[in-house]
């Protein structure tokens, strides 16, 4: 059967293809086009050349991107987007000086969302997540990692992961599931006993159902120590789950070194990471996931991207969308990466697309090179600089998922 020409996006002022061959910046094409067949990019380049071989009139969708920009869909590699309840009063409390750790230690924060998720029906959880997937899609996200971790018992963790699978099946955004039973210690438990419950009860049940790809741990003072994190992540590896680590977020604990030691796919947050941490992450090919929205919402100092750039580490920028950081928009994360962390617009957009794909071990996206998934965002603006520039007003004209226009 000859391939179906799904879409030709043509006459874009700029096509932001992805990293260039030597990894020193982006490859862009002026007056460019992208052709997508059977869900994959089959041609990218100047509009003349692409449309000669793939006439837009032969495509299921011809997208006129005149004066606009075409980018790979954003790959948001770190979220806790499946939640219930309302924590807006904690936002106000933080403005009055309460810290994230204080709120958690008093049974608020994550533990409060745990209570709300345990009480919510599967249907309500799914409805909430589908609404949020609509929201992220509208700002150009086509792949969204989502963690469990608001259950903290086997039954609710499995319920969360089942909701992620249901949402993935029903929505065009690809949902990538991460098991995070080690997100906090339940109020009634002692930490070591809870670690054992994660290892001996939760992980085997999650693995048996095959509902998660990654295993993540909040390695932090007062939450899980490096040794406890190692125990959980090693058990996850035995069950076929690839490690991720919440590392050096509020304090420096050694989570980044642990990520390197275990061959994790990513170490995330890294606000307090050292140069040595950056070096070992680079050396072991662990993607450094920077989450500027979190620092913004906590009023904390941002992670330092120069540290990771100089070490030669792969850097991703993600949203950390969660009830403590109610920021679903990847373009807003890109703005914060530029304004707050000093990244250049092209570097930040690469980190939010190709970097995100590395953090999720998805070599098939985050770029518009031939063979990649036909996931792209069309902006009604002439260059990728408009992603961070127009914060609060992302000019998304259309989003394509595997060549299908899913939003316009
Ligand atoms: N730091 C730990 N976990 C989340 C916050 C989750 C929450 O506060 O509900 C994070 O990555 O920022
Ligand atoms: Zn997180």
TrEMBL record:
Keyword DNA damage set for record: no
EC number: 3.5.2.7
Binding locations of Zn(2+): 78, 80, 246, 320
Ranges where the Amidohydrolase-related domain occurs: 69-405
Highest taxon in the source lineage: Archaea
GO cellular component, one term: cytoplasm
Pathway info: Amino-acid degradation; L-histidine degradation into L-glutamate; N-formimidoyl-L-glutamate from L-histidine: step 3/3
InterPro entries the UniProt entry points to: Amidohydro-rel, HutI, Metal-dep_hydrolase_composite, Metal_Hydrolase, MQNX/HUTI_composite_N
Positions bound to Fe(3+): 78, 80, 246, 320
Pfam families: Amidohydro_1, HUTI_composite_bact
Binding site for 4-imidazolone-5-propanoate: 87, 150, 183, 249
Binding, N-formimidoyl-L-glutamate: 150, 322
Single GO term (MF): imidazolonepropionase activity
A Gene Ontology BP annotation from the UniProt entry: L-histidine catabolic process to glutamate and formamide
Domain Aminodeoxyfutalosine deaminase/Imidazolonepropionase-like composite: 32-55
Keyword annotations: Cytoplasm, Histidine metabolism, Hydrolase, Iron, Metal-binding, Zinc
Annotated SUPFAM superfamilies: Composite domain of metallo-dependent hydrolases (SSF51338), Metallo-dependent hydrolases (SSF51556)
Primary role: Catalyzes the hydrolytic cleavage of the carbon-nitrogen bond in imidazolone-5-propanoate to yield N-formimidoyl-L-glutamate. It is the third step in the universal histidine degradation pathway.
Family according to the record: Belongs to the metallo-dependent hydrolases superfamily. HutI family.
PANTHER family: IMIDAZOLONEPROPIONASE (PTHR42752), IMIDAZOLONEPROPIONASE-RELATED (PTHR42752:SF1)
Name of protein: Imidazolonepropionase
Source organism of this protein record: Salinirubellus salinus
Upper taxonomic lineage: Archaea, Methanobacteriati, Methanobacteriota, Stenosarchaea group, Halobacteria
């Amino acid at each position: 059967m000859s391939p179906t020409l799904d879409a030709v996006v043509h006459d874009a002022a700029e096509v932001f293809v992805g990293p260039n061959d030597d990894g020193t910046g982006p490859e862009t094409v002026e007056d460019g086009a992208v052709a997508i067949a059977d869900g994959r990019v089959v041609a990218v380049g100047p509009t003349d050349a692409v449309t000669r071989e793939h006439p837009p009139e032969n495509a299921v969708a011809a997208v006129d991107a005149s004066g606009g920009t075409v980018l790979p869909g954003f790959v948001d590699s770190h979220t806790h987007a499946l939640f219930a309840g309302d924590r807006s009063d904690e936002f106000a409390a933080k403005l009055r000086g309460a810290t994230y750790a204080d709120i958690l230690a008093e049974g608020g924060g994550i533990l409060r969302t745990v209570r709300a998720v345990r009480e919510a029906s599967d249907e309500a959880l799914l409805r909430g997540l589908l609404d949020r997937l609509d929201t992220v899609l509208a700002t150009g996200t086509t792949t969204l990692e989502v963690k469990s971790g608001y259950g903290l018992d086997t039954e609710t963790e499995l319920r969360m992961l089942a909701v992620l699978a249901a949402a993935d099946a029903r929505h065009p955004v690809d949902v990538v599931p991460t098991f995070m039973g080690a997100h906090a210690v339940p109020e009634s438990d002692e930490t070591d006993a809870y670690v054992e419950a994660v290892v001996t009860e939760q992980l085997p049940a999650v693995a048996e159902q095959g509902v998660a790809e990654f295993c993540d741990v909040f390695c932090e003072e007062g939450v899980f120590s490096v040794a406890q994190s190692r125990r959980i992540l090693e058990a996850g590896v035995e069950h076929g789950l690839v490690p991720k680590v919440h590392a050096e977020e509020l304090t420096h604990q050694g989570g980044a070194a642990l990520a390197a030691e275990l061959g994790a796919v990513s170490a995330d947050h890294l606000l307090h990471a050292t140069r040595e941490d950056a070096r070992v992450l680079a050396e072991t090919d662990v993607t450094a996931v920077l989450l500027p929205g979190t620092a913004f919402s906590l009023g904390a100092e941002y992670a330092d991207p120069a540290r990771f750039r100089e070490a030669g580490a792969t850097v991703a920028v993600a949203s950390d969308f969660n009830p403590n950081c109610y920021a679903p928009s990847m373009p807003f994360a890109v703005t914060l990466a530029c304004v707050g962390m000093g990244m250049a617009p092209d570097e930040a957009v690469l980190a939010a697309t190709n970097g995100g794909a590395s953090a999720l071990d998805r070599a098939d996206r985050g770029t518009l090179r031939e063979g990649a998934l036909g996931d792209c965002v069309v902006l009604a603006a002439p260059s990728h600089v408009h992603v961070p520039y127009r914060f609060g007003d992302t000019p998304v004209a259309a989003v394509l998922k595997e060549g299908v226009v899913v939003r316009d």
